[in-house]
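Tutorial sheet, problem 5. The two components below are modelled jointly, 604 residues in total.
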Amino acid sequence: MDQIQSPAVRVRGLRKAYGGVTAVDGIDLDIARGETLALLGPNGAGKSTTIEILEGYRRRSSGEVSVLGADPATGGRAWRAELGIVLQSAPETGLYTVREQLRQFAGYSPHPRDVDEVIAAVGLERKAGTRISKLSGGQRRRVDVALGIIGRPQLLFLDEPTTGFDPEARREFWGLIEQLKAEGTTILLTTHYLDEAAQLGDRAAVILDGRIVAEGAIDQLGGRAARVPIVRWRDASGARREQRTERPAELVAALAADAEAAGDGRDGEPAELEVIRPSLEDVYLELVSAASAPAETPGVSSAPTPTPTATPEEARA
Amino acid sequence: MSAVTAQPAADRAGAARLPGVLATGLRRMTYEVRGYFRSPDTVFFTFLFPLVMLGIFTAAFSSAGEIAPGPGTEGVSVGAYYLPGMLAAGVLLSGVQGLAVDIAGEKGDGTLKRLGGTPLSPVSYFIGKLGQVFVTGVLQAALLLLVSATVFGVALPTSGEAWLTFAWVFVLGTVASALLGIALSSVPRSSRSATAVVVPIVLVLQFISGVYLQFSALPEWMQNLASLFPLKWMAQGMRAAFLPEDFAVLEQHGSWDLGWVAVWLLAWLVIGLVVSRLTFRWIRRDA
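Model answer (structure tokens):
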């Protein structure tokens, strides 16, 4: 069947309007089998609506959507058995123990993972017999993740999965996701932690005002212009300076020479010098601020407004 | 059915099949019963409530002597008179109040949304809920009968016929109540308002249907109004099972009317089934 070769998720011209408000305004998106896509965007940009349409929770207004070869609006139980869903907000009730809850959910799947293995994978071995209501927020979130993967899904939706995790728990969680990726699980991840998106994602897409404004491999998102390194320093007059340049070493050398020539007793060391390669977070923030600039008209360009790059000579001028 | 093409998992070893709807429903039943007894508020306001009320009535009115259907006939104790009504109230509470509040809560806190994202069949979910109502209802009735017989000194019927009447009224009433509870769960707009919507309905029905007040003492218009709802018929059926034959004269038409009890309960069962089927959603769908 061509299902095997077809992408896990294929979206064309997806639109969703609530009354007169357009939440999703023409999205095209592909997620290949085994790929992890990080879907980024501010709250209210249309992320959750898009995901809920893919999960089958919401109906679309128009457009084509195929998830694991089926239309989510009509997907049956066998189709659902291949999805794992970790919702953004999870139920508060906790009458059952971690193990009871996982056993129960494992029973819905035709091919569940081993309950104790999953408990171990999310690091809750010592809490397996504890009622969920007695767990901390971060521990409950791990239960949510465990419930999402207990059915051995082909496609896993992770909607802000690590909210409430401490840094260590987040690292452990990353390890777990790397393991799932290695098993070939396709993952759609939304997160507000850009380091997490960079760590886990193969590709990222940025959604703003219901449209995808940038999409690409994590290290290419936003295009070349967005990736131009930034050199920051404090000049002789004490003012903060910042310059984007494709040739940071050259600029730094020139700055050093200048500082030495000025002879201000700092041995040619410009104050607070740093060379920054824009992280995913920098690129993302630039995309968002560019799109929300008041002068922008519809048809926003997909590249961030690049800061003019200057030659070292101009920079010193 | 083309199981292979329809199943994306077919390429996996063993081409696993979905767990059966009934088997999963029964697993959910034990899970639900466990959850029921872990919630202190349902245990008190649904499970123990009829017993508490029977205790209060027995203690409050026992000094008034026995209740008899007429002059010169043999009466029964206050406890014995109120027992059938409390059994009927227990069935209504377990089904209608228990499920309506429970499911509205599950809708409100996201439990249903999560279940809707799994391959669980809604039918399995319903089997679990119905099963939970049935199991807890049986335990509730057993406890009520046991305490009545041992503590309140109520003489329980000895004829097989009486117990058979009790059995079918109980089963029919329980299924109808559970389905009506599922149907009613879609009315409250939030889990917080669920109790506010459901409890008054159930309370009013208990007052007009002969649970707390002697049905024969109610004005005729109230009796007629109560006759439109299932609790009156459940209580009547229970009285037929537990009260002496002489008490039939106190009923609206001077007899137990068991045929009508069956008809009305079946009608409500069907209404509950249809409305549940039409209104139940894992989540509130937009547009």
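Marking note: Residues 149 and 155 of chain B are 6 Å apart (CA to CA). Full credit if you identified this.
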